[in-house]
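A note from the maintainers: we've had questions about how concatenated examples are separated. There is no special marker in the raw files; a new sequence line simply starts the next protein. For clarity in this README we add a label.
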Amino acid sequence: MAYREVLTRLWIIEPVPGWLPSRSHLARLTQSPKHQLADPALAARLPGISKEAMLSGDEPASAVPRDGTFLGQLFESLVTLSVRSYAQSAEAQVRHLRTYDGRQEVDLIVERPDQRIVAVEVKLSTTVSDDDVAHLAWLRDKLGPDLLDSVVVTTGPHAYRRKDGVAVVPAALLGP
């Protein structure tokens, strides 16, 4: 049995399936799931990394093998857990989008029963740059009116809408 299957059965990780749109003609999307921690708070404690090291991004290289910062991955897992909870109450599905070549990726795709979507990027930052929304703009161009909204979830203190229409929402303000 693969270790991911064991971790899933133990409710330590949860797979986020790849999104395959039924109404658009996006080509070359990967179907492999992306795995998120079921309880990021527990995972934050297990490696024994100090709060200061985690917040600065200076945690020991051998502590947790990964790309990016450990705190960034925990933040994405926390946002995913929250979005999945709210989506479930709205009878929506949560997926992720990644092209086979890795050029385009959107952290979360929330699909309503009518197959219209909200695209969500997660950024461990208080500010959002044009580079941070590039994949959301690409998806908006591909989907047209099937894309209800684009959102970047951040650690910032305020919610606002950028000039390009992308909503910026602090994780603390997420809710149904």
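[label: protein 2]
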Amino acid sequence: MHRLPTLGGEPIYTESGALMTYGSDQLEMFIGAASYVDQILKGARPAELPVQLPTKFNLSLNLKTAQAIGVTVPSTLIARADVVIE
């Protein structure tokens, strides 16, 4: 093991051993996509639909990994995390 902190964009990575992930909420993105499809099926022109950006992001921390590689995670970061793996 090289003891390097690894970051990712999907919570599945922290479940697999990455130190932390931070990325858009995929469920929210799928709901937004479904809204686009609904509008298009009702006759809206795709070129006229506004661009939707993510508004919700998830932070996931793996404290087991942090301990294994000797990284101290600040308590303020732990308090802000949506998911903490201990």
